[in-house]
Design a protein that fits this description.
Layout lengths: L1 E5 L6 H12 L2 E4 H11 L2 H12 L5 H13 L7 E4 L5 H14 L5 E6 L2 H9 L1 E4 L5 E3 L18 E2 L6 H15 L1 H8 L3 E5 L4 H12 L4
Parallel strand pairs: 1-3, 1-4, 2-3, 4-8
Antiparallel strand pairs: 5-6, 5-7
Helix pairs in contact: 1-9, 2-3, 4-5, 6-7
The structure holds adenosine monophosphate.
C-alpha cells in the first residue's frame, strides 16, 4: 500500500504514520525527521534547510522533490510507503505525480487527519521529543516516566524549536496557505480519506485502519 499522510502540524500524523507503517510493514518516510537529522549532522542539506525550519517556513520545493526522487531511484519506495509531511505544496504534489507515473507507482490514499486550531495549539505547547532517538511525548497526555528523560533510550527530552508559540502560528498559517490546496488535489483524484484526528491515539488509529480497510 502506498499512502500519504496530511494534516496540520500537531495533528498526530507522524505518530499515526509510524504506527501504521509498523502494522502493514512498509516504509515510513518523514521529511521533517529527515531534515532534522540533516540539521543535527550539519550536512549540506541541513545547512540549507535550517533557517527555513527555524522560522516555521517550508524548505524550497526543489530540495524536497530531489530528496523523494532520490529515495524512489534507490528503490526505497518499492515495498510500499507512507509519506509523512510530503508533499506540502502543489508543485511538490505535481512533481511526485509525474515521477510516480513515469515509474508506474500509484498513491492508494491520502489520509487527512482533521484537528481544529485550538486543539493544535494545546497539543504543540505540551509536545516534547527525545533529542537522541526522536521518540515523542506529550504533557499531560503521554508523560515520560521520569521528568524530561526519554523512556526508550534515556536521552534528554526537549521541545522542538519550531513548536515555540510564535513559530507554531506561522506553521499553521503556512499550512493553510501552501499545503491545504493539496487536500483538493487528492479529493479531485478521489483518494482523499478524511479522518477525525481528535481523541486518544488508539481511537484515531482505529479510525484510520477502518477507513483504509486494513485487516486487524
Ligand atoms: P514536520 O516535522 O513535518 O512538521 O516538518 C518540520 C519542518 O521541516 C517544516 O516546518 C518545514 O520547515 C520542513 N519540511 C518538512 N517537510 C517539508 C516539505 N515537504 N516541504 C517543505 N518543507 C518541509
Amino acid at each position: 500500500m502506498n499512502l500519504i499522510f496530511l494534516g496540520v502540524p500537531g495533528s498526530g500524523k507522524g505518530t499515526q504514520a509510524a504506527r501504521l507503517a509498523q502494522k502493514i510493514n512498509c516504509l515510513h518516510l518523514s521529511t521533517g525527521d529527515m531534515l532534522r537529522a540533516a540539521v543535527k549532522e550539519g550536512t549540506e542539506l541541513g545547512l540549507k534547510a535550517k533557517s527555513f525550519m527555524d522560522a516555521g517556513d517550508l524548505v524550497p520545493d526543489e530540495i524536497l522533490i530531489g530528496l523523494i526522487g532520490e529515495k524512489q531511484q534507490n528503490g526505497d519506495l518499492d515495498r510500499g510507503f507512507i509519506l509523512d509531511g510530503f508533499p506540502r505544496t502543489i508543485p511538490q504534489a505535481m512533481a511526485i505525480d509525474a515521477i510516480f507515473e513515469r515509474v508506474g507507482l500509484t498513491i492508494d490514499k491520502a489520509v487527512l487527519l482533521i484537528v481544529d486550531d485550538d486543539e493544535i495549539i494545546k497539543r504543540l505547547s505540551g509536545r516534547m521529543s527525545c533529542s537522541e532517538c526522536q521518540a515523542g511525548f506529550n504533557y499531560p497526555a503521554k508523560m515520560p516516566k521520569q521528568e524530561s528523560v526519554c523512556d526508550k533510550c534515556g536521552g534528554k527530552l526537549a521541545r522542538r524549536h519550531d513548536d515555540e508559540p510564535e513559530v507554531v502560528k506561522n506553521r499553521l498559517a503556512v499550512y493553510k496557505e501552501q499545503t491545504m490546496p493539496i487536500e483538493g488535489h487528492y479529493r479531485e483524484k478521489a483518494i482523499l480519506l478524511e479522518v477525525d484526528g481528535v481523541g486518544s491515539q488508539d481511537e484515531v488509529f482505529a479510525r484510520i485502519v477502518e477507513g483504509l480497510k486494513v485487516s486487524a
